[in-house]
Amino acid sequence: MSLDLEVVTCQLHCSLPLSSFQDSTFVLFLTQNIPTPLPLSYRINSTFPHVTPYVIFATSLYLFYTTHKLLRQKHFPPPPEASSMAKSPESEHPIKAYGYAARDTSGVLSPLTFSRRATGDKDVRFKVLYCGICHSDLHFVKNEWGVTTYPVIPGHELVGVVTEVGSKVEKFKVGDKVGVGCLVGSCGSCQSCANDLENYCPKQILTYGFPYHDGTRTYGGYSDHMVADEHFVLSWPENLPLDSGAPLLCAGITTYSPLKHFGLDKPGMKVGVVGLGGLGHVAVKFAKAFGAEVTVFSTTPAKKQEALEGLKADHFIVSKDPEQMKSAASSLDGIIDTVSATHPIAPLLSVLKPDGKLVLVGAPEKPLELAAFSLIAGRKIIAGSAIGGLKETQEMLDFAAKHGVTADIELIPIDYVNTAMDRILKSDVRYRFVIDVANSLKAP
Amino acid sequence: MGSSPETEHPVKALGYAARDSSGVLSPINFSRRETGDEDVRFKVLYCGVCHSDLHSVKNDWLNAKYPMIPGHEIVGVVTEVGSKVKKVKVGDKVGVGCMVGSCRSCDQCDADQEQYCSNLVQTYNSHADVTYGGYSDHMVCNEHFIISWPENLPLDGGAPLLCAGITVYSPMRYYGLDKPGMHVGVVGLGGLGHVGVMFLKAFGVKVTVISTNPNKKEEAVGKLGADSFLVSRDQQQMQAAVGTMDGIIDTVSADHPLTPLISLLKPNGKLVLVGAPTKPHELPAFPLLFGRKLVGGSLIGGIKETQEMIDFAAKHKITAAIELIPIDYINTAMERLQKSDVRYRFVIDVANTLKST
Q1: Is B267 part of the contact surface with chain A (CB cutoff 8 Å)?
Q2: How far is CA A106 from CA A75, A103, B117, in A?
Q3: Nearest-CA residue of chain B relative to A192?
Q4: CB–CB contacts below 8 A, A to B
Q5: Which residues on adjacent β-strands are paired with residue B348?
Q6: How many Å apart are CA A271 and CA A347, to the nearest integer?
Q7: Can you tell me the distance from the alpha carbon of B270 to that of B261, in angstroms, rounded to the nearest whole number?
Q8: Which of A151, A126, A145, A150 is nearest to A221 (CA)?
Q9: CA A170, A173, A174: angle at the middle one, nearest 5?
Q10: Which of A361, A364, A375 sits opposite B296 (nearest CB)?
Q11: Min Cα–Cα distance to chain A from B292, Å
């Protein structure tokens, strides 16, 4: 048979108009994404009308599927991931939520309606009762670390009451008091995770401002409720106050963990604490609870009374006073340095005994100046530590409950939060603000 | 009364001393004390040349007292012992390292960590007492600070262990980097570094040598038995090794950045400094926090541990790679040491070449 072909370019969709078989015409439509023009339609005139339709039909089907497959492979982009879909915080999840968020680098917080995922099999959903304000919240809302995406709802010292649990949750039931700290996820399979050190997992997921497993961003505790994987939810001890215990979820574990890990938790040890703020005051309390003799180092002489009388520290040294520092030379087993402002470490190393340990838990941005000989002559160590794993955080809470360790707090309504942030900048708080979320955060 | 080195003690001695911060060494007649009840007197056979000797004679550390007779990697044979000495007898081979005295009553001394005693007496150029080191014909030393020399440990190749050896051995033990299967880096392949590689291999540790000099790869891997070699200035190589090491022994005393080394550590990893640059390091805090990593120092080791190290070296046949030299070559040796032109330690053949004039 002879075939006369007429080429016509077409657009948009494939169709086989069967009614055209009579004159042996069929048209293939394809999308605009094809980079090179292809002959797409053929008007076929055949001298064997009774056979031709079947041939044409088969051919067209073959062409249709082949081209379709090729095009999909080469030209159709893979379906967009959930995170890149432009969904608003309010619509990305099925359950409505509301909180206070920062919208830009001014860091000013204001009400935000957003949403949280439904309670999965291993999830625990809880109403937020209290949330501590950590200095990290302030760094984050102002994007001082360059990692913030707005809007951001901070808060990683949350305490609440369980409202729903997933079908596979074993540790909690509705009505239980719980806490969530700085982590809501990790890889679960690396060496750190295997050693209950989720805080050193390279794929850890922070409680706020981080991409979660589903690609959406996490929102923290300045909000009405939260949902978290059971593994990252802490059981709240009966006799631990909810409000003044909340800051332990970050400040507490941050100081408890290195005291234990670096062996500074033995009775009679001489431990220094540098800086008397949110971290420092809790470090003093834990060190005292371990039976240590505690020296507070501060640049502010006015904090002496609080340190000695309020917090029951044993000694107080003004770190900028060389005479006082000299009197403490080679006397301490270890120091927990909570200060994040840039400061010299040589004087701190000099007050350590041989084999002494300086542990940084505050993170100065600029590098510190370290004379190697100050470590070598005395086999001293300078180390860092960041929060703690979930198992240790639970242990810390239980220890705090047993020994009556809580933070010194100022309880505030949520609409005070911006003023609180300003005051934190000026270190005008003794020593942690805690937001009375349940009583002050109202649904819009 | 200004007694001179030659007259201050009753027993004549001969050595090589630096007279000023040029560091040039030349013969000196001096004197040593008589053998006390607890003393061991020995003829010096060999003495290693440590880079600290070079720093000291040139007054790099601003604490030099001249004339200075350096040398703290000393091996010899006992010629006389005091009445209360039990450890060794005449004819025994012995070693003396970097210390000849301490208070013997503080916490550090009680813990066999005499090197951290605040009243430490160093083998030469000590702060309070005047001491003269091993570039000399003989020495007298309190029994406590004498190391018994194992039968099968070569005297010349073993001498550098008394400083270089203990300096790397001690932190491997203390910081727990001596467990089979661990992965430990050694920065710098010189006197300290090459001995460090050998000890780590003897512990069953996987060793990566980190160096600025690509030419050292063959020696590191081929001769010393290191498992791998990293050029520290090669970004790609360093990137590939991020987060792979349990610890690093950093022997380098030239200025160098610590941040890239910290990145090589696994979480809970340890960077141990045994070399001391003159300028302070820049230490970033974040990499320490997010990984609970530490930077620690270490200074030689206590006497008990030095003996343990020497016995370990004898058992595992570890000796330094040395170039044996006559004592009158010492100034040339110092110049070559300055240029790192030695594989890997000079050892002075004292007994055969130090002659009275």
Answers
A1: yes
A2: 43, 8, 54
A3: B267
A4: 114
A5: B47, B325
A6: 15
A7: 10
A8: A126
A9: 155
A10: A375
A11: 5
Name the β-bridge partners of A197.
Answer: none
What whole-number distance in Å separates Cα of residue B184 and Cα of residue B201? 10
The whole-angstrom distance between B289's CA and the closest CA on chain A is: 4
Whats the size of chain A, residue-wise?
A: 444
Q: What is the pLDDT of residues B144-180, one digit of tens each?
A: 999 999 999 999 999 999 999 999 999 999 999 999 9
pLDDT score of B43 more than 60: yes
Any A CB within 8 A of B122 CB: no
- Nearest residue of B to residue A343, measured between CA atoms: B285
Q: What is residue A309's DSSP assignment? A: I
- Give yes or no for residue B47 having a pLDDT over 70: yes
Q: State the sign of the Cα–Cα–Cα–Cα dihedral A9, A11, A14, A18.
A: negative
pLDDT of A123-178, one tens digit each?
999 999 999 999 999 999 999 888 999 999 999 999 999 999 999 999 999 999 99
CA distances from A164 to A169, A349, A442, B65 (A): 10, 50, 21, 77
Determine whether the interchain pair A363/B286 forms a contact, defined as Cβ–Cβ distance below 8 Å.
yes
Strand, coil or helix: what is A341?
Answer: coil
A residues 190..209 contacting B (CB < 8 A) = 191-192, 197, 200, 202
- The total of other beta-carbon atoms located within 10 Å of residue A217's CB is 18
Contact across the interface for B297 and A372, Cβ inside 8 Å: yes
Q: Is A378 close to B266, i.e. CB distance below 8 A?
A: no
Contact B283, A370 (CB under 8 A): yes
Please tell me the distance from the alpha carbon of residue A432 to that of residue A249, in angstroms, as a whole number. 12
Q: Do the beta carbons of residue A391 and residue A257 sit within 8 Å?
A: no
What are the start-end ranges of the E strands in A230-329? 234-235, 270-274, 293-298, 315-318
Is A372 in contact with B118 (Cβ distance < 8 A)? no
Q: Cβ(B60)–Cβ(B17) under 8 Å?
A: no
- B260 CB neighbour count, 10 Å cutoff: 17
- Backbone torsions φ then ψ of B100, nearest 5 degrees: -125, 0
Entry field: residues in chain B: 357
- In this complex, do A378 and B299 lie within 8 Å of one another by their Cβ atoms? yes
DSSP bridge partners of A185: A205
Q: Comparing C-alpha atoms, which of B325, B322, B320, B319 is closest to residue B350?
A: B325
Identity (one letter) of the amino acid at A149? T
Helix H or strand E segment including B30:
strand B25-32
Q: What is the mean pLDDT of residues A48-63?
A: 56
A192–B280 CB contact, under 8 Å: no
State whether residue B180 sits within 8 Å of chain A by CB. Answer: no
Contact A371 B297 (CB under 8 A): no
The answer to whether A99 and A223 are in contact (CB under 8 A) is: yes
Q: Are B134 and B292 in contact (CB under 8 A)?
A: no
Neighbours of A50 (CB within 10 A): 7
Answer whether A142 touches B (CB < 8 Å): no
Q: Nearest CA to CA, how far is B276 from chain A (Å)? A: 5
Q: How many angstroms separate the CA atoms of A282 and A369, rounded? A: 27
Distance in angstroms (rounded) separating the CA atoms of residues B244 and B120: 38
Number of H helices, E strands in chain B: 12, 18
pLDDT per position as a tens digit, A106-136 = 999 999 999 999 999 999 999 999 999 999 9
Q: Write down the pTM of the prediction.
A: 0.86
Q: Where are the alpha helices (DSSP H) in chain B?
A: 51-57, 107-110, 155-158, 164-174, 191-202, 217, 235-240, 259-264, 286-289, 303-315, 330-338, 350-353
Residue at A27: amino acid letter: V
- Establish if B254 touches chain A: CB-CB under 8 angstroms: no
The residue among A253, A359, A382 with the most chain B CBs within 10 A of its CB, best to mutate, is: A382
Q: Which amino acid is at B37?
A: D
Tens of pLDDT, residue by residue over B48-79, are 999 999 999 999 889 999 999 999 999 999 99
